[in-house]
Amino acid sequence: MSNPVYGKQAQTSTRDDKRSSLFWVLIVGIMLFFIWSPFQAALFNGQMLDFEKPVYWALTITSILLIIAILSYYKEFRLEEQRDWLAVMVVLLPLTYVLSLVSAASHYLAMNMVIVQCIYAAMFIMSLYLLQDRLGNNIIQTTIMSVAYLIIGFGFINWFGQWVLAGKLVDWFSSAVYQNRYTSAVMTDTNGLRLTSVFQYANTYAAFLMAFFFAAIFSLMKSKTWFGQLTHGFMLVPILVSLFLTLSRGGLVMMPVVFILLLLFFKPARQLLWIIHCAVSGIVSLAVLSPITNMGLQLNQTYNGATAAKGWGLLIAASLVAGVISWLIQQYVAPKLENGMQGWASQKFSNLWLPVGSVVIVGVVAFLLIGTSLRNVLPENIRVRVEGINFQQHSVLERFQFYEDASKLIADYPIIGAGGGGWATLYEKYQDYPYTSRQAHNFFMQYLVEVGILGFAIFMAFILFVFYKYIRGYIQHAEQRDSYFLYFILTLSILLHSILDFNLSYVFMGMLVFVGLGGMAAAMHSRPVKRLSLNPAAFRPLYSGVIGIIAIILVFTGLRFIQSSNASTEARQIARTSQSFDQIQAAVNEDLSIRPTHPDSLILLSSLYQAAYKQTQNEQFYTADEDLLKRGLKAEPFNKSMTSNLMSHYQLKNDNEKAFEILQDKISNYKWDITWYSNLIQQAFALGNQAREQEDTAKQQQYFEAGLNAYQQVLDGVAHINNLPKSIMITKPFNVTPEIALNTGKIQFMSNKPAEAAAILQPFLNEDLSNATNKEIVRYYVAATQKQGQVDQTWYDKLIQADANEKQQIDDLVALQLQ
C-alpha cells in the first residue's frame, strides 16, 4: 500500500487508476452517511418510537455500504495476522446482544440494541480495510473533521437565535426539525439555556467538543499547508466557546484528564506546542465568552438581527485572531522548537516532564477559576456551574447512586445481562430513591447491565487489545505516528467521557468510536498468527459469504422496521384526529404484522379494543384485548403501560380482584411510583370494605393488611428520602398524598381503630371543603373522633356548614358496628 501501517503491511492499491469504482462508491457513501447522520438527533437511540426510524435507516445504509466493502475488499480478506482476526472478533459484539435476548427485560429495546451493535460492527469492518489505504484514510479524516466543524457552526446559528435559518438548512433531510426549528438545539433546564447543537443533550455535545478540540489541535500541528493550519486554528475558539455554552461540568472536568493523557504521546517540542495552542485559544475564548454568552441568551428570548450580526462578527474576529496566531506559531515557532529540543527529546522519560508539570498548571488554573475572584471573568451562568464542581454536588452523587443501583441489577442478571435497554426497563425496580433516568450515565456500567459479564468481557478484551496494539505500534514506528493518531484522539476522548455519561446512546458518537477503533486497528502493530491462520482461498468465500448474507438480511430487516415504524407513527396520527376504529386498527395491524409486540402499537390497539368493548359489550373485543396484552407482556414483562392496560381490562368486567393482584404483584417493579401505591391502597380499601359488607372477615383482613403494608412502605420511603444528602435533587415526588392518607385512614376506621385513623387523617385536614377528597378526609376524621368519644367540634362545625348533608353521613359512620 502507499502508506505502510505498523506491523505487517497490507497490500492495497497505491495509484488512483488501480482503485476500483467500488472504492469510490464506498467512499462517497460513507461521506454522505456522515453528513446525514448527525442531523438525525445524532441517531439517538432514545428507546421510543420518535427516535427509532433514523436508526433503522442507519442500519439499512451501513448494511448496503458493508456489501459494497465486501465486494471491494474481497481479495484482502485473510486470517494471516492479528489485524485480520479483528474483523471476525467484532462480530461477537452484536452476537452477545443476540444472546442477551434470552433474558431480555424488553424484547423491543433489546432488538434495537442488536441493530445498533450491527451498525458499529459494520463501521469497524469497513474502516479496518478502507483506512489501510492512504487516500481512503485521508478522505475519511477530512470528512470527519469537516462534519464536526459543520456541527459546531450549526450550533452557533441556533445560539444566535437564527433557528429558522438552521431549520431550513436541514429540514429537507432531517427528522429532528419540527415547525422549521431543529428541536432543542439550544435546550433549557434548571441551569438555563444550554447549547446542544444536533445532539439535543448538552453533556454529549460537550464530549463531542472535547474530542474535536484536541483533534483540531493535532490536525493543526500535523498540517503542512497554511490553509489547513489556519482552518484548524480558526476553529479552536468556536469549539471552546461552545464547550462553555453547554454548561457541562463533566466536560470541563474530563478535559484536563484527556489533555494530559494525550501529552504523553508527544515529544517535548510537540508537547510545548500543544500547551501553547491550548493557551492561546483558551485566552482568546475567555476574552469573548461573556459577550457571546449574553448575546445568545438575549437572542434566544427576542431575536434582533443587529445583535446577531454583532455576535457573529465578534466570534469570527476572535477565531481569526486565534487562527492567525496558531498559523504563525506553526510557521516560525514550531521549527525552532523541533530543532532546539532534540537534545531534550533524546533524554530518558523526557516526554513525562511537561505532562507532570501540566498537572500542576491545570490544578492552579482550576483553583483560580473556582476558588478566587478570577472566576468573575466567566459569565454568571457559567460561573455558577464552575463553582458547583465538587464531589458533593447533586449530579455527582446521583451518578454514584445510578452506578450502585446498576450493580444491584447486574447481580440479578450476571452472565448474559438483561438485554439491550435493560437499564431503561428495570431501573425503577432497583433505584434507591425516586428519580427518572432511562440512561445509567455511564456507558460501561450500562453495557455490563445489558450483556452481563460475558458480553462485557468480550467487549473490553476487544477494545483493550486494539488500544494495546495501536499504542505499541505507535511507540515503535515513529515515522507513521501522524497518519492515524486522529482516530486515537477521538476514540480515547469519547470513551473516557462516557464514564460520566451516555454518549454512546447516540449512534453517531458510537460510529465515531468504532471508525476510530477501525483506524487504530488498520495501523496497529500486527503479527502473524500461524496456528490460527486459514488459507485465504478458503477463508475469503466463507467470510465474504457469511458477512454478505448477514448484511443482506440486515438491509431487509432495516427496511421492514422502517415500514413498521411508519405504520405505528401513522396509527398514532390517525388516533389523534380520527375516531375511525377501522382506520386505526388497519395501521396498527400493519405494524404488528411485522413486529407483533411493538409496545406503542400494541398499547394503542389494546386501548382501542377496550373502548370498543365499553361501547358494544362485544366479547370478541374483550377476548382479543386479553390475548393481545398477555402476548405483549410475555415480551415486555416490565412495561408499565401494558400492565396498567391489563388492569383496566379486568376492571371492564368489575374483576377488581385480578386487577388488585397485579397491583400487589408488580409493586416491587415500581417501588418509588407513588401513584402505584395510591391505587393499591385505594383498591385495598374498596375490596376490603366490600368483604366487610359481605361479612368475609378473612378477605377483609387480607386486603386491609395489604393496604396498610403499602402505606408503611410509603412511610419508610419518605423516611429514607429525608436521610439522603440534601444536595440530591428528588425530581420524582414521593410522599403521603391526601388520597393515600384518606384511604389508609378509612382502612383503619373500618378496622375499628378510630385513634389510628384520626392520627393519619389529621395532618391532611384542609379548609377547602369544595374539594371532594378534603371533604371526605374531614368526614372520616370527625367520625373517628366521635368514635373515641371526643369529637373535634371545630372541624365538625366547618364540615356541616359547608354541607349540611354531611351530618347524616357522619352519623352513619359512627353507627357502624365494626369488629
Automatic annotation (TrEMBL):
Domain annotation O-antigen ligase-related: ranges: 235-460
GO molecular function list: ligase activity
Membrane topology (UniProt): Multi-pass membrane protein
Matches recorded under InterPro entries: O-antigen_ligase-rel_domated, TPR-like_helical_dom_sf, WaaL-like
Record's subcellular location: Membrane
This protein's UniProt keywords: Ligase, Membrane, Transmembrane, Transmembrane helix
Major place of residence: membrane
Transmembrane segments: 21-43, 55-74, 86-108, 114-131, 143-165, 202-221, 233-266, 272-292, 312-332, 352-374, 447-471, 483-500, 506-525, 537-562
Pfam families according to UniProt: Wzy_C
UniProt cross-references to Gene3D superfamilies, sorted A to Z: Tetratricopeptide repeat domain
SUPFAM superfamilies attached to this UniProt entry: TPR-like
PANTHER family: LIPOPOLYSACCHARIDE BIOSYNTHESIS PROTEIN PA4999-RELATED, TEICHURONIC ACID BIOSYNTHESIS PROTEIN TUAE
Protein name (Swiss-Prot/TrEMBL): O-antigen ligase family protein
Organism of provenance: Paenibacillus terreus
Lineage of origin: Bacteria, Bacillati, Bacillota, Bacilli, Bacillales
